Amino acid sequence: MGWILLFRLASPAYATQAHGAPEGLYTHQLSHIFFIVAMGILIYWLRSRQLVRQSGWRLIQYASVFFILWSLDAFLVHYMDEQTELIRVARASDWQIHIQAAGDRGWLGLLYYFLKLDHLLCVPGMVFLYMGLRHLTDPVRSIDPGQEGGP
Prior knowledge:
Layout: H1 2-9, H2 21-48, H3 55-83, E1 87-93, E2 96-101, H4 106-115, H5 119-143
Antiparallel strand pairs: 1-2
Helix pairs in contact: 2-3, 3-5
């Protein structure tokens, strides 16, 4: 009963969060760019050293691609939310929002809606990362079966 009450009293947590004041947004946007560059360097490094021949590293490369796409998606959503007047979002109810695009740009509202579904890129990235790390640690687990229940 306590859990139900706790969840009922909790405020909503949104997948793509807005940032107050311009400094927080600029820093956050720069972090998306930094993350994109870092994932690109990781992919380059994995390919140049031919580590992608191993399935674990190949899966981590796929995770990096999904993380790049996710970060680009989040960057665009933040830009549309905070830095332009192209999109206006109004909450109609707890389960509904109204997206209005400026001018005759109905396609922009649809694009914004799909960009807000950033979890469709982030979650596969996390799954590929998990599977890649799991493949890389399989030889360790086969040598020492006691590692299975470890931290």
